[in-house]
């Protein structure tokens, strides 16, 4: 903590390259419908866009990429679409894990896995184990993920520690919450992108995105090209992240840094 009570990690995140990029990959269905194709064709095309954005993050040495693949609310879709999405998830894990390992990418699947078929749960564990030693990009895939679920399971964990006498209620801090979320140990998202034109959070990383810079684009996810990502990154680089301070304070501290 500095004298203002702000955590140093938040002050550091004024760099022009984000440490953590989080993306709501939306618009697959509309992409397919525009082409007279079934919605599923859009989801398949979306996997290609995932591969490309992962490679770009590796090249740029971004530390963490979190992709929203399936929300806790997406079970409300027609069973046929849900089943096809589960099949596609399985297929993508089978196909991509070797490539991820080659690129030194550590894969983490965040969300409530308990509702997935046993075979898919086993595949998730296997994929995570295969890449566990990789120390380049951390790729988090949010599957059956909801920000409210994440906070609820963190509350349960913390309550257990209190009940066991391992934690005093008065010693619970913001860091205690962060440390019990599925994203524990990772920096919060700096850049939060949503494709597909909607302007909502849809229950993604609610706690973690408290100070994320938002970038909303009408581009549909399967059309998310390296050029679109570059545009988001250059927009981010032009933002001034104040974390509650004034522009004058920030200008003053960057002058001080230059004088050092
Ligand atoms: C996002 O695309 C992918 C998932 C939610 C699984 P959508 O399927 O929501 O696409 P639109 O919003 O209907 O176009
Ligand atoms: C959010 O997209 C979830 C994912 C991209 C996985 P949705 O298309 O499901 O979001 P809503 O329902 O329109 O808010
Ligand atoms: Mg959608």
Word description of this protein:
With 260 residues, the chain is α/β, with parallel strands linked by helices. The chain has a single domain (20-259), classed as Decaprenyl diphosphate synthase-like (Undecaprenyl pyrophosphate synthetase, 3-Layer(aba) Sandwich), CATH 3.40.1180.10. 46% of the residues lie in helices and 13% in strands. The protein contains nine helices and six strands; from the N terminus they run αβααβαβαβααββαα. The protein has helices spanning 8-12, 28-34, 39-60, 79-102, 118-130, 147-163, 174-179, 226-237, 247-259, and strands at residues 20-24, 64-71, 106-110, 138-145, 191-194, 213-216. A six-stranded parallel sheet has the order 3-4-2-1-5-6, sandwiched between helices. Strand 3 (106-110), helix 5 and strand 4 (138-145) form a beta-alpha-beta unit. Helix 2 (28-34) packs across helix 3 and helix 3 runs parallel beside helix 4. The longest helix has 24 residues, at 79-102. The radius of gyration is 19 Å and the shape is globular. The two termini are 21 Å apart. Residues 1-14 have low confidence and may be disordered. Bound molecules: 3-methylbut-3-enyl trihydrogen diphosphate (IPE) (2 copies) and magnesium ion. The site of one 3-methylbut-3-enyl trihydrogen diphosphate has 10 residues, from helix 2. One 3-methylbut-3-enyl trihydrogen diphosphate is lined by residues 24-26, 68-71, 73-74, 198, 200, 202.
